[in-house]
Specification:
By secondary structure, this protein is an alpha+beta fold. The chain folds into three domains: 199 residues, Cupin (Jelly Rolls), CATH 2.60.120.650; 41 residues, no CATH class; 83 residues, 50S ribosomal protein L16 arginine hydroxylase, Chain A, Domain 2 (Malonyl-Coenzyme A Acyl Carrier Protein, domain 2, 3-Layer(aba) Sandwich). Helix content is 26%, strand content 25%. The chain contains ten helices and 17 strands. The strands form four sheets. It has an eight-stranded antiparallel β-sheet, with helices on one face. The protein has a three-stranded antiparallel β-sheet with strand order 8-7-10, with no helix packed on it. The radius of gyration is 25 Å and the shape is globular. Its cofactor is Fe(2+).
Length: 381
C-alpha cells in the first residue's frame, strides 16, 4: 500500500504541528494490515502492552491493564469498550510496513503504531496528546471530534487511570471510513467514537522529548564524567564590603562552569543518539537463539541474501566529520568509509541488498545480527 494521493511537502508546510487535517483515503489500495482476532491475540501476550477501556456512562469510565485471558473478550457485553495494543509494529511486519509511507518525517521522531478495536460507542474519552499522531481508520467507521488547544494546565476530570478533559470545546467533526486519515498536532483535544461494531484504528505516534527529559538525561550523563577535582576557584579574590554578598562576578563564574560542562555539541550528539534510539521495551530480547558467526555473515553475503531490519529496532545516525555515528537500540557504532555508507543505507530502508563489503562492514553486520537488529533473509522467508 502506498500514499498515492498525498503531498508530503504541502502537508509539512501547512499542517505539521500547526493544524488538524482530514485526508480522505489517499492509498492506492487500502487493506487493513491486521485482523481483530490478531489484535486480541497480541493483547494476551505478557510482553505486549495492552489496555481495555470500558465506557459505562458519559461520566463513568474504567480501565483494565493487560495481558488478558482470551475469555475476557467473550465476557464483554454491549456496553461500549475499546481494546488498545501498543507497539503493534514491533510484532507484525504488515503493520510495521505502514511506517515506510511516513518517512517524510525523520525516523528518530517515530514512536510506534498503536492499534485499537472498539464496538459501537467505544472510545477512550476526550483527551489530548503531547505528540503528533496520524489516526488511520483501518476497519469500520469512527467519528472524531476535534477541540481546543490544550496545555499542562488544562483541567482534567478526577480519574485515577485516564486523563480525560474536564471541558471539550468542539471545533470540528470528521467521520472516517476505511483508509481515511486524521492528523492531529500535539496538544489538540480530540475524541473518537466508534460508529459500528467493527471499528479499528491504527495510530502512528511521533515522539517529542520534553525539555525536562533532555535536561535531566543530558545533565545526568555529564555528571558521570565529572570529577571531584573540578571545582570553583577564585584566585585573585578581592576584599568585598559585605562578606554575605554573592557578587555578580562569582555568580558569573559559577554559571559559566555549569554552561561549559553542558555545552559540548559533539558529546551531546553522541548522548542523544543513544538516548533516543534506546529500545522502548528493553525486556524483549530479539537476539538470535544461536550466535551468528562471521562465517555466517560472509556466506549470506556471497549467496546474495538481503539484510532485513528488525521492525522493533530503532536505527538512526549522526555525522561526525567524515564518520557516521550509528545508533541502534541504545548502542553506538563508529562507521567510516564503506561502513559509513552501509550505516546510512541501513537507516534509510527495511530491506537492503548489500553485495560485496569490506571487513568493517561485515563486522558491523555481525554485531547488529547478534544484537537482533538485523537478520539475513533466507530462501522462502
Amino acid at each position: 500500500m502506498k500514499l498515492a494521493r498525498f503531498d508530503p511537502a504541502a502537508f509539512l508546510a501547512s499542517h505539521w504541528q500547526q493544524a488538524p487535517l482530514q485526508i480522505r483515503n489517499p492509498w492506492d489500495d487500502w487493506q487493513c494490515p491486521i485482523e481483530p482476532d490478531e489484535l486480541a491475540g497480541l493483547a494476551c501476550e505478557p510482553e505486549v502492552e495492552s489496555r481495555l477501556v470500558l465506557r459505562k456512562s458519559t461520566e463513568n469510565w474504567a480501565l483494565e491493564q493487560g495481558p488478558f485471558d482470551a475469555e475476557r473478550f467473550a465476557q464483554l457485553g454491549n456496553e461500549p469498550w475499546t481494546l488498545l495494543v501498543q507497539a503493534v509494529d514491533h510484532h507484525m511486519p504488515e503493520v510495521a510496513e505502514l511506517l515506510s509511507q511516513f518517512r517524510f518525517i525523520p525516523s528518530w521522531r517515530i514512536d510506534d503504531v498503536m492499534v485499537s478495536f472498539a464496538n459501537t460507542g467505544g472510545g477512550v474519552g476526550p483527551h489530548f496528546d503531547q505528540y503528533d499522531v496520524f489516526l488511520i481508520q483501518g476497519r469500520g467507521r469512527r467519528r472524531w471530534r476535534v477541540g481546543q488547544q490544550c496545555t499542562d494546565s488544562t483541567p482534567l476530570k478526577a480519574h485515577e487511570d485516564l486523563k480525560l478533559l474536564e471541558n471539550f470545546d468542539e471545533q470540528a467533526v470528521y467521520d472516517l471510513e476505511p483508509g481515511d486519515i486524521l492528523y492531529v498536532p500535539p496538544g489538540v483535544a480530540h475524541d473518537g467514537i466508534a460508529l459500528d461494531d467493527d471499528c479499528m484504528t491504527l495510530s502512528i505516534g511521533f515522539r517529542a522529548p520534553s525539555r525536562a527529559e533532555l535536561v535531566t538525561g543530558w545533565s545526568d550523563h555529564v555528571l558521570d564524567s565529572l570529577g571531584e577535582d573540578d571545582r570553583f576557584s577564585d584566585t585573585g579574590l578581592k576584599l568585598q564590603e559585605n562578606p554575605g554578598e554573592i557578587t555578580p562576578e562569582a555568580l558569573g563564574r559559577l554559571q559559566a562552569m555549569v554552561i561549559e560542562a553542558l555545552s559540548d555539541p559533539a558529546q551531546f550528539a553522541r548522548w542523544f543518539g543513544g538516548f533516543n534510539s534506546a529500545a522502548k521495551y528493553p525486556d524483549i530480547d530479539w537476539r538470535p537463539e544461536e550466535p551468528i558467526t562471521m562465517e555466517d555473515v560472509q556466506s549470506a553475503l556471497r549467496q546474495g541474501h538481503p539484510v532485513l531490519r528488525n521492525f522493533a529496532s530503532r536505527l538512526m545516525f549522526v555525522r561526525e566529520g567524515e564518520a557516521i555515528l550509528l545508533f541502534v537500540d541504545g548502542e553506538t557504532y563508529v562507521c567510516e568509509g564503506a561502513c559509513a555508507a552501509l550505516a546510512e543505507q541501513l537507516c534509510a530502508g527495511t530491506r537492503l541488498q548489500v553485495g560485496s563489503t569490506d571487513r568493517s562492514s561485515q563486522m558491523l553486520l555481525l554485531e547488529l545480527a547478534n544484537l537482533g537488529a538485523i537478520a539475513f533473509e533466507q530462501q522462502g522467508d
